[in-house]
Amino acid sequence: MTAMQHDPAYNFAYLDEQTKRMIRRALLKALAIPGYQVPFASREMPMPYGWGTGGVQVTAACLTPEDRLKVIDQGADDTTNAVSIRKFFERTAGVATTEHTNEASVIQTRHRIPEAPLGAGQILVYQVPIPEPLRFLEPRETETRKMHALEEYGLMYVKLYEDIAHNGAISTAYAYPVKVEGRYVMDPSPIPKFDNPKLESGAIQLFGAGREQRIYAIPPYTQVVSLDFEDHPFEPSKADHDCDLCGCGTSYLDEVITDDAGGRMFVCSDTDFCAARQAEGHRGRLSGEDAA
Amino acid sequence: MRDDALSGGFTDAPVEAARAFRAALEAMARPGSLHEVAGAEAPAPLSTAAAVLLLTLCDGETPLYLAPGHDTQPVRDWIAFHVGAPLVGPGEAMFALGQWDALAPHDAYAIGTAEYPDRSVTLIVEMPELRAEGVRLTGPGIETEAHLALPETAAFQRNAARFPLGWDCYFTCADRLAALPRTTRTEAL
Amino acid sequence: MYVAVKGGERAIDAAHEWLAEERRGDPQVPELSLAQIREQMSLAVNRVMAEGSLYDPELAALAIKQARGDLIEAIFLIRAYRTTLPRIGHSRPVETSAMRCDRRVSATFKDAPGGQVLGPTFDYTHRLLDFKLAAEGEAPVARQAEPTLAPTPRITEFLNRDGLIQDEAHSDETPPDMTRQPMEYPADRSTRLQALTRGDEGFVLGMAYSTQRGYGRNHPFVGELRIGAVEVEMEIPELGFDICIGEVTLTECETVNQFMGSKTEPAQFTRGYGLVFGQTERKAISMALVDRALRWEELGEENVGAPAQDEEFVLAHSDNIQATGFLEHIKLPHYVDFQSELELVRKMRREVEGSMKEAAE
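^ inputs. structure came back:
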């Protein structure tokens, strides 16, 4: 954990106060209408669209000097884009950072929900590329807006059912659509469907899509149901292995190719979770004697 | 313009507004939970908490309605100097401020449209007291149930029934605030 | 023994150092100055100002230098800087009919009051590489003429006098600012024009070209193309009148388009409009054609399903900063999602193989 002073050349957390107020108003309406995408006047950020500008704006609007920020990409704190975003907030907000999920008060994530349950005092901020769950069925904003207004989600069920008819299974493996509090169909961002059950959480979950200018939210303890059918219930799935480093049998795994002869190993995608288990003495198939 | 119109704003706006917003965010995310805020001092009858919410959420882009009792020259001057929100009637307001009875009729405010349910008012209701007891609250943000002393329940039940349309409320008293979004179900005990 | 990849931070720092070194190139070659870029790469500077939506040749030159000549990257730098600038006030609308024209051509009339002025154009150059330019030291001087002080009224106004061209609605309302409000469809014309003027030159050009080839043909003539300086005026409330705060160079194109009339309107000409920062005439003409194509509904024309008639399609995809960011983000790690797909494909294959085996037994 590190703390530093924020760079006085920038306003605290980079954004000007008027922009923050605009984002904050959108966040509050998003919490009041769970799963509904609130349009907001996303600003051009000093990092490219598609690299987390929505999440960065949401995080910037939420951060206080007392926060401890964790940034992950693919579940890992050390992936390059996570490093880059963490550095941005160290510099512009002077905020303390951490890699430990349980110490973090704000977590910005791309593509994963941490394994450890989140709770009171924690905010999970998702980076969202395409916030509209109906976009790949209907490219027009004017049409999808009407479909949400009329709660007309038949097209989505037809698509999922066609999957079953063609492939025997729903072929969506990530960004698996959910229905929030029985009303809005929502894109949970491209998390693997393994993570969908964790969308029902004790933490505040905020979603930011910068390029598409949308913010949405799931308050704590809100009902989030993955779309499915009685005869084809939703199945969160993962690689059918244990972690080769910590031995965990219930965490989401990355498959790592270890040689050019088909050798591979499976390791926890959540690097903090895996390191904590190893520190507690858990061992996996390939843990060396010196792994701790 | 009197001198007290020029004082009572945030002294370190970026940081004080950030802390105040986190309280407002937690309040809206966990309906009925009480939060303390600080940093603003406005002319009576404006409470510290209501003044903090105005400083944190309102500006020249947010039309504001002042209900009778809060629509006084000192309050107008303070808002003109620190917030800059244009003052409007209830129908055009994005924010409305006053005591519950003074804000009536409560169906005069924007509740959003089917395509844009977010285009709805946020009421800032000044309360004589703010207690986490009385009306039972359930819904998103509440693990089992929460309690909050509300001025009535009928209006909140009607508001919740038209979800996803509706308005959302902050309740303020002295330096404390709580919130009740349109999703919260209320039940008098 | 497997060790998870660490050192992202060191890798990033090293990459940035390398980038800076590559940007400078061979240190034996003199470094480019911003003045050199501003003066000798002025059309690149103009494009960066236009698509960056910020009129500042010096900053645009800096962005081009920093971006190693990648203009989209330079536009991105300018956009990111622009959003941090405070809004001190709003100018009055500029009066392009009072432009000091360096160039003014009309394709619809042989001549017009104020005259045709070719100006500094590539139009009639033969595109032969000029090897003399490879040698340094030349500073050509063009012949001079007396400046004409006659007014240069807009050519379309002559048509307007006879009711032959549709009049545009006048309004003193402050138009919405697309950089401060989220895009909403259908968009009004002012928002569409804002999106087009900062849109990617290549995209807008391609869309315009498609209308010429029959995808929503709208029979355009360049009624007038003018390039020159206009004064920017601002109302100072304390003074109670407007004062000139500076000058900008603009390119304006008005097209004159055939219109067959409808049940409610007699046949008359209609306009497409393009207005872009700097000398950027390819962009201004393209903009006018696409603007006209997007007006099909208000003019009671048929939507033939052409891409350039599709407001959502054009406006949602014209911005090169949005496009390049989202396109390039697919090189970021996606292995978590890929793993989820991998497991799903394996599972589906197992099930199919299982049922094939059962069928064989």
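Chain C has two domains: 14-82, 96-119+150-324. The beta strands of chain C are 100-105, 220-236, 241-257, 270-277.
thumbs up if we can close this ticket
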